[in-house]
Each structure stands twice: as C-alpha cells, then as structure tokens.
C-alpha cells in the first residue's frame, strides 16, 4: 500500500479520536445528579476586563457527592463569579457565604433523568455523524489516490481499513453513551 494511503488511514484515526474526545467533554457537562467540577468548566467570568474560566480565578472542589465548592483566590471575585454562574443558566443557584460559593446539586427526578439520557444519546448521535463525515472525507481522499495511480486492490484494502476504524469508534461512542446512561439512571 502506498505511503499516502497509510497517511490517510493514520489521519482517520487521529480525527476520529478528536471526535471521541469532544464527545467525552460534552457528555461530562451533562450532570448526573452527582457534583462534578466540570459543571463550571465552560463558565467564564470577567477578571480585570478579560473573560477567564472560573477554574483560573478560583479553586473548584467537590467536598461531597452533591456539592461543588468554588473558593476565589481574591475576595472581590465572589460577586462576578456568582453573576457568571447565574448567567450561564446551569440550573443551579449559587449559595454565597462571603468566602465560598457553593453549588448544591438537587436530586434528579425520574423524568429529568430520562431527559438527560436523551441529551446524552443526542450528543452520541452528533459524535457518530462526525465519525461518518470523517470516514466519507477520508474515503474520498483514497479515491483521489486511485485516480492518481493507486491500484484497485490497495484502494479496497484502504477503504476496508477506514471502515473498520469507523466501526471501532462508533462502538466506542455507543459504550460512552451506555456508561453515562447507567450513571444518570443510578439513584
């Protein structure tokens, strides 16, 4: 097989790995009733005129299963962090005691759990679409190589390898979704 087709197959794995990484980030943002510092990862706060992630202006910890604790490194950051959390609309009202902001995770209802599972599988479907788009693009690259002189057997072999990589990553997405579903539905 040609060096160019090997490079395309290698790129396929790298691109699909990035799609899985993105899925993991998105799924980790979906709270499962358990406290997680990732819930505030995407929230930015004004810090001396610059939008800055909360975890860069405060210590974010999880003291127990239902609480996220945010302790700013500067006391004057309490109010801006609290405003940023309210503006982010994550469904949790921050509790400010003058030193620490606490986020208490409300217990999830059965209905809310089912909504979250649907959201997880929706993210999984987005991941599968990304994987399939990568497969389509890479197979197009292989077909261009065939026009440039790659043998038909080598083309079929490369397409088969790309398909097996695709199948592996689709299975991985399904597994991530099932694991998150189990985590959400566990009371």
Mean pLDDT: 87
Low-pLDDT segments = none
**Number of helical segments?**
4
Tell me about the biggest sheet?
A: 4 strands, antiparallel
Order of the strands making up the biggest sheet: 3-4-6-5
Going by helix content, strand content and strand pairing, the class is alpha+beta
Question: What gyration radius follows from the Cα positions, in whole Å?
Answer: 22 Å
Strand content: 5-15%
In whole angstroms, the N-to-C terminal distance is 52 Å
The run of helices and strands is: HEEEEHEEHH
Strand elements, count: 6
Rough shape? elongated
Helix content: 55-70%
Attribute tags:
single chain, 187 residues, alpha+beta, two-stranded antiparallel ribbon, 15% strand, elongated
Descriptive notes:
With 187 residues, this protein is an alpha+beta fold. It is 59% helix and 15% strand. It has helices at residues 3-29, 78-88, 110-147, 152-185, and strands spanning 44-47, 50-53, 58-64, 67-72, 94-96, 101-104. Helix 1 (3-29) packs antiparallel against helix 3, helix 1 (3-29) packs parallel to helix 4 and helix 3 runs antiparallel to helix 4.
